Amino acid sequence: MSSVAxxxxxxxxxxxxxxxxxxxxxxVDFWSAVKLSFLIMxxxxxxxxxxxxxxxxxxxxxxxxxxxxGLYGEISGDTSFKITDVFGLGQVLGxxxxxxxxxxxxxxxxxxIGTVLYNLSVRITGGVLVGFTNQ
Length: 135
Description:
Blueprint: H1 4-14, E1 19-25, H2 30-61, H3 64-76, H4 83-86, H5 89-125, E2 128-134
Antiparallel strand pairs: 1-2
């Protein structure tokens, strides 16, 4: 069995213009990984908040909240109940904001832990071999 790096070496030997470089990733900078994971999680948090807003707006525009309120009123006999009192836009966006903040914290911590674990495992495994070609 040949690895991808060996296949690339054979392919690069056929054409003289390409050059292959094999590098090992033996260290990931802790603060760079923490900053990158923080920025990724902030972007995902923004996506979560915008997504929650859009889903709520679609449900409100299609009058699903009114239908559910009417259905609950028929079942319970309480016609004054409105589902938007419980799941209003403010409440939904507040919950989405809290979840986004928790995701930012947890994701950043997991990125830091992953970096530390990778840097510790490199001492045992020697790192990841990566092959690059110049075309």
